[in-house]
């Protein structure tokens, strides 16, 4: 039987098109996957920042997930912004019920512009309900500081903190260092059961168009996992895709703030798997 590799994105909607569900749809499609979605919240935002967040009623979040799971049966799930405790519980319940092979969880707590996107009580729900069900979590430095209680401003501190993130029960943790000072970017991948971390180093690209890079990266990783890559390979290929997207979009003017990367700088046809 032939099929498309399906990735279900469970995340919030960004009306400006650069992050959230919209970024996920673009990234998954550009990499040859079939994107399905379950929207957790409607945000009012643009390149300048987030103005308001309206959560979708949990019963409708559950309904979206169940409709996709029962029919299309996705190969991987990407989870993005959730700012409501009941929605966290609904997603966790669905993951336990349908047990998708891969779950990539981007614990979105703080936007690029510094806006807090999540309620305090939701953080505990994320760590207790969702992280133990995740194949990979992908916090940025600000989010990792919330999760570990440690300030991180260099790679050595990131290498110490990455294993601490595994205490939440996830299969692996990718600590993103995009906001480190200096001309290099370094992400640290720690996989449960492995002693040494995987380091991914690249040159920093000067660009204000970085809106949605975290959403895009996690969706890309989920797509490569669905395509059969192992975890380090999936992260490596996803990072290369995001780097290319930032470079291709760095001189484009979209909005007056942080514009998006170029998701379709090198799209590939939809993959067909057996």
TrEMBL record:
<dbReference type="GO" id="GO:0005524">
    <property type="term" value="F:ATP binding"/>
</dbReference>
<keyword id="KW-0418">Kinase</keyword>
<dbReference type="InterPro" id="IPR004399">
    <property type="entry name" value="HMP/HMP-P_kinase_dom"/>
</dbReference>
<feature type="domain" description="Pyridoxamine kinase/Phosphomethylpyrimidine kinase">
    <location>
        <begin position="14"/>
        <end position="262"/>
    </location>
</feature>
<dbReference type="GO" id="GO:0008972">
    <property type="term" value="F:phosphomethylpyrimidine kinase activity"/>
</dbReference>
<dbReference type="InterPro" id="IPR029056">
    <property type="entry name" value="Ribokinase-like"/>
</dbReference>
<dbReference type="GO" id="GO:0005829">
    <property type="term" value="C:cytosol"/>
</dbReference>
<keyword id="KW-0067">ATP-binding</keyword>
<keyword id="KW-0808">Transferase</keyword>
<dbReference type="GO" id="GO:0008902">
    <property type="term" value="F:hydroxymethylpyrimidine kinase activity"/>
</dbReference>
<dbReference type="InterPro" id="IPR013749">
    <property type="entry name" value="PM/HMP-P_kinase-1"/>
</dbReference>
<dbReference type="Pfam" id="PF08543">
    <property type="entry name" value="Phos_pyr_kin"/>
</dbReference>
<keyword id="KW-0547">Nucleotide-binding</keyword>
<comment type="pathway">
    <text>Cofactor biosynthesis; thiamine diphosphate biosynthesis.</text>
</comment>
<protein>
    <recommendedName>
        <fullName>hydroxymethylpyrimidine kinase</fullName>
        <ecNumber>2.7.1.49</ecNumber>
    </recommendedName>
</protein>
<dbReference type="GO" id="GO:0009228">
    <property type="term" value="P:thiamine biosynthetic process"/>
</dbReference>
């Amino acid at each position: 039987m032939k099929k498309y590799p399906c990735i279900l994105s469970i995340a919030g909607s960004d009306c400006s098109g650069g992050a959230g569900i919209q970024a996920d749809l673009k990234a998954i499609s550009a990499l040859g996957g079939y994107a399905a979605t379950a929207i957790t919240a409607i945000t009012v935002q643009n390149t300048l920042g987030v103005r308001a967040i309206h959560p979708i009623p949990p019963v409708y979040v559950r309904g979206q997930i169940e409709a996709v799971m029962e029919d299309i049966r996705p190969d991987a799930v990407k989870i993005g912004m959730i700012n409501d405790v009941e929605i966290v519980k609904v997603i966790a319940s669905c993951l336990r019920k349908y047990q998708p092979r891969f779950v990539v969880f981007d614990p979105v707590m703080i936007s690029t512009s510094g806006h807090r996107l999540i309620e305090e009580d939701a953080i505990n729900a994320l760590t207790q309900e969702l992280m133990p069900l995740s194949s990979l979590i992908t916090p940025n430095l600000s989010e990792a500081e919330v999760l570990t209680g440690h300030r991180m401003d260099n790679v050595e501190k990131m290498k110490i903190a990455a294993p601490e993130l595994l205490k939440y029960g996830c299969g692996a943790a990718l600590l993103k260092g995009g906001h480190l000072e200096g001309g290099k970017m370094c992400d640290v991948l720690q996989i449960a059961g492995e002693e040494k971390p995987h380091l991914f180093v690249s040159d920093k690209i000067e660009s204000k168009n970085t809106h949605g890079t975290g959403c895009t990266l996690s969706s890309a990783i989920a797509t490569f996992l669905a395509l059969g890559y192992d975890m380090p390979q999936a992260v490596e290929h996803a990072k290369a895709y995001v780097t290319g997207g930032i470079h291709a979009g760095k001189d484009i003017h979209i909005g007056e703030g942080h514009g998006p990367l170029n998701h379709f700088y090198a799209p590939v046809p939809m993959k067909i798997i057996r």
